Amino acid sequence: MEIVKRPGPPTGLRRTLWRLPISLYRMGLGGLLGRRVMLLTHTGRVSGLPRQAVIEVVDHDGHGYLAASGFGVRADWYRNVVASPEVTVQVGGHVHQVTAVPLPAEAGADLMARYASRHPAAARRLCRIMGYAVDGSQEDYREVGRHVPFVKFVPRESRR
Fold first, then answer.
1. For the chain, which end, N or C, has fewer CB atoms within 10 Å of the first or last residue's CB respectively?
2. d(Cα 29, Cα 41) in Å, to the nearest integer?
3. Given its phi and psi angles, is residue 54 left (phi above 0), alpha (psi -120 to 50 degrees) or beta?
4. CA distance 159 to 122
């Protein structure tokens, strides 16, 4: 694995394009995006206002949804969920109250390797977007996973 260039979060037109799926969710059409994309509603760490981002579901293990911050620890959504981990996610038409739990680097390595074996073309493309050159080996993907912050969104117990 080689770090080619770590891009910052998108700005300008690129940011607008990345945020287009939020409009689909707001129109009630989030189900069209499938189960690999979720709408994250979180609280801005500075403003205290509700914020939204659409992020890819890397895995769903029955105990929560797992996602990677492709733009690293500088991504606004990542910094916001670290500051205020009580968030809401919507996958398809289902809304879940969850707690965001950052994962250790070794857990990220395992997740990235599993993701790459299940979705090889998407993993290669994702690595390129994040600024990593990979040779396609499991160890290369594991190394990428050690550098990329992963978050598990764990369902909160309902409070009655």
1. C
2. 16
3. beta
4. 38
In the beta sheet, which residues pair with residue 28? Answer: none
- Structure tokens of 153? 């969104």
**What tens-digit pLDDT sequence spans the chain (160 residues)?**
888 777 777 778 888 888 889 999 989 888 888 888 999 999 999 999 999 999 999 999 888 999 999 888 989 999 999 999 999 999 988 999 999 999 999 999 999 999 999 999 999 998 998 899 999 999 999 999 999 999 999 999 744 3
Amino acid residing at 46 = V
The count of C-alpha atoms lying within 13 angstroms of the C-alpha of 4, restricted to the half-sphere facing its C-beta, is 10
